[in-house]
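Model it.
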Amino acid sequence: MAALLQLSDIHVALGTVPLLAGAEMVVDAGERLCVVGRNGCGKSTLLSIAAGLRGFDAGTRFLQPGTTVRYLPQEPDVSGFATTADYVAAGMGPGDDIHRVAMLLDALGLDGEAEPSRLSGGEGRRAALARVLAPKPDILLLDEPTNHLDLPAIDWLEGELAATRAAVVLVSHDRRLLERISRTVLWLDRGATRRLERGFAAFEEWREALEAEEKRAAHKEARKLVAEEDWLRYGVTARRKRNVRRLHALLELRRRHRAAQTPQGGMKFAATAQVQGGARIVLEAHGLEKNFDGRPIVRGLDVRILRGDRVALVGPNGAGKTTLLRLLLGELAPDAGRVTRAEGLRVAFLEQRRENLDPERTLADTLSDGHGEKVIVGGEARHVIGVMKDFLFEPARARTPVRALSGGERARLALALGLLRPSDLLVLDEPTNDLDLETLELLQEQLAEYAGTVLLVSHDRDFLDRVATSVLNAEGGGRWVDYAGGYSDMLAQGGRVGMAAVAAAPVPAMPAKLRPAAAAKPAPRKLSFKDRHALERLPARIEALVAEADGLRRVLADPDLYRRDRAAYDGAASRLRVAEAELAAAEEQWLSLEMLREELEG
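Modeled.
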């Protein structure tokens, strides 16, 4: 069967610099393809070409006639529409089920009547996801779909992508999403593409094998180059045709050797910690309380954060993660309780939106903060070009203005500024947004070596597992529970994730355990009578809700219902949204209880 979409020998140059040099992509029906590569290598360019939204210098693009394609860019434009529902509905085509607009808006927690211009970054991303998913296209092209999404939305998206019949082409830094969704990997490296007919879980081993082979080949080329340069210095006579051919061969050999020597790694983050006075307790909160408009955000929180801890704040959007950060840092006064901080605590804050970057300053000037060609790293002066290389920027880009950098490069620059600043406490707000996988690996290594304390807000599950030593999880009603370990450890200990955790009724706050040098193992949970009863009754409840939702969909499928009986149509549509929400909550509750039961019995 012919491919639905095929890109062949694609070339794109930015000025005189080649970005894509013979890139290839084949998308078959039902494909699960992830595109990986370093920031700035052209992944987004390749996806926009596949979507038919960008031209190219050479090559061919073939799309099977009648194939529908939907594309989610990194920065979707939601402007120009009166309501969010109008924006989502604009992505529908002839014959598409318009009811999916309301269904997806409800599933993603969006108000269809809201003005798109007033949506937050996360809400805009969810609206854009609804727009591309609603039509059920043949091909989905998704560029960083998890950026600005919270954990419940990421879990929901994962389920949608696993269930869709569409071919999926995915660019993402979320390792767990790539591992669970992809069946094929397309590696974009130095303008060319290489394809692995296995999922992302096998990618790193495959890439390392290819790079090792390249190094062996480069070593052979280098030895040959030495011999040829010796001939060039002592034996060339350009008058002879065979020597001219040999000279051309030498120049080509040099070009290949330079390409093989292009640096592929080596970032050296320089985050330093010089804890004042040797204080072991960095932050300590007692009885912390904060309410907004009568809603508890933090309720009775007791927590102790020690030097060297990596504490992740986890919860859905709106749970109060940023509020808790501000309380701990002293930027916001609590309604009750107190926070004690180590004397002379120096904080380096990496904020999510990169608003501290001046778009008109050059890359070198931003890194040196206007102090010429020197950057102070760990108390020592270094040349700005060397620092740029450490952070994977080519020396030729020193005079590039920040506005000309890609989203991933701006994220890397903001990360550099935070890590170069001497600090005792490093605060990272969504640090993984827009970072490529190699940069993420290096960031993880540097955070492991950082001598200070880290406060981290992230929705990247794999990153949390690799970095966090403990998790503060929002479990509803302003209650934050402290779990030892990373994200997966939190789930294994019974931590709840989802909108149900935020909407849960307030419960009396239990003091979070005070973390000693080695956190105590939490007491094992047991299935209560209420839990056992819920496990018995939930399957029937789920079956009844599925039947009710199917019946309502059949009612709404009547094309004349809206014209004939508007009230009946509105009632059925409203009840369908409620039934689907109740079904999702029941399924989530059953899954959590079943996992707990298996854990206890196992």
